[in-house]
Amino acid sequence: LQESESENRLDGETASDSESKSEFGGSSPVPTSDDTPEVLNRALSNLSSRWKNWWVRGILTLAMITFFFIIIYLGPMVLMTIVMCVQIKCFHEIITIGYNVYHSYDLPWFRTLSWYFLLCVNYFFYGETVTDYFFTLVQREEPLRILSKYHRFISFALYLTGFCMFVLSLVKKHYRLQFYMFGWTHVTLLIVVTQSHLIIHNLFEGMIWFIVPISCVICNDIMAYMFGFFFGRTPLIKLSPKKTWEGFIGGFFSTVLFGLLLSYVMSGYRCFTCPVEFNNDTNSFTVDCQPSELFQLQDYNIPVLLHSVLGWKTVRMYPFQIHSIALSTFASLIGPFGGFFASGFKRAFKIKDFANTIPGHGGIMDRFDCQYLMATFVNVYIASFIRGPNPSKLIQQFLTLRPDQQLHIFNTLKAHLVDRGILGSLEDA
To answer: Quick one: which pathway (predicted)?
Structure first.
């Protein structure tokens, strides 16, 4: 009897897991179905399941890439809206899994509170972003200025209201499950909302910091699948039996090369390299600037050992291309672990995909499990190696001060420049 019980458990599942599941009503899998469009089913009916899945994934991948190009063309506002929509859908998919797997149908206010906490966290993060990037607009409008001044207090009050609602909803027979789902909601918020907020911050640094990392993850996903499909023989990790070393290595080299080429093309266009800023005169976003040194061609010396191989002594490239190597390397070597993490999560709850939103691909979360990890890395990378003081933001804040405060800063800055001999040289000029 003990042997049969252990055989029925998932890999790595303990006795305590089984007891918890019986208390929570069992962990029956979320139902999945074949939602492939009927047109594709008829067109590919003569193929084996392996090749049918290959064609379905390929066609839908091309459709998603086309959609990606369209939203890039439509500009930053549309991109930010899409990021918000993806965030909401990913949150919905993960919350629904908890709702179904643990049969949380009788929990009072569970879904209402989950969405309420999502609203609170988004209000906090996006309020911080608006105050940071639209400072002049906020100071110009009285209601926005008040909201900005007390933003963190309002955010805390909103969260505290939800916290009190959760405590009031506690029911004796559901205590353990209610606290479990409370933690489920907050971990989901940490993973989904925080990462999407970082994606938007990367976008404001310049669309190239948004497009290149995302494209590298997409490229790695496609090329790893292609190399694994045609050449894969050696399993990579037990969490994802279909992943192979051939796909992992082939995806790495393909992604690094793709990142270098894409960065070279995009670095020549100001609309991609300039920070996304809000123009108070036109009340719209602008991406026009003098490109920084990152996006100006420079000559680099090639190591002597490679002279005979390449036949070149110098190579002309953009400095950003060097940074793209770091981005594409992370997307290839560390990014897939986001997918492995998601695979482990799905195995733990006996589900094939997070949802059936995209035929052949699963849910939105199945496509963005690596993107969220990449967003954090890009944000940390920019803060550590790229970002410096922003003069335009300092000037905006300076102009909102009282006249006496502005004069104090002016006199302090003037004295500093005179001591350094800079102001005198400027007056002579």
So the answer is: Lipid metabolism; Phospholipid metabolism; CDP-diacylglycerol biosynthesis; CDP-diacylglycerol from sn-glycerol 3-phosphate: step 3/3
DSSP code, position 334: T
Dist. CA 45–CA 27, nearest whole Å: 34
Using DSSP's 3-state secondary structure scheme, residue 107 falls into: coil
DSSP H helix total and E strand total for the chain = 20, 6
DSSP calls for 122-183: HHHHHHHHHHHHSHHHHHHSHHHHHHHHTHHHHHHHHHHHHHHHHHHT--GGGHHHHHHHHH
User: Secondary structure of the chain: what % helix, strand, coil (to 5)?
Assistant: 70, 5, 20
Q: Residue 109 and residue 24: Cα distance in Å, rounded?
A: 17
Helix (H) or strand (E) holding 374: helix 364-381
Q: Choose among 184, 183, 178, 123: nearest CA to 156.
A: 123
Tell me the C-alpha distance between 134 and 132, whole Å.
Answer: 6
Q: What are the pLDDT tens digits along the chain (429 aa)?
A: 343 433 344 344 433 344 344 444 444 444 444 556 666 666 666 777 777 777 777 777 788 788 888 888 888 888 888 889 989 999 998 888 887 777 766 677 888 899 999 999 999 998 888 887 777 777 777 888 888 889 999 999 999 999 999 999 898 888 888 898 899 999 999 889 988 899 888 988 889 999 999 999 989 988 998 898 889 889 888 888 888 999 999 999 999 999 999 999 999 998 899 887 777 676 677 777 888 889 999 998 887 777 777 777 888 999 999 999 999 999 999 989 988 888 888 888 888 888 877 766 677 888 788 888 899 999 999 999 988 766 767 777 777 788 898 899 988 988 888 888 887 654 454
Closest CA to 34 of 365, 360, 366: 360
- What is the residue extent of each domain of the chain? 207-387
pTM score above 0.85: no
The distance from CA 278 to its chain's CA centroid, rounded to whole angstroms, is 22
Task: Identify the three-state secondary structure at position 221.
Answer: helix
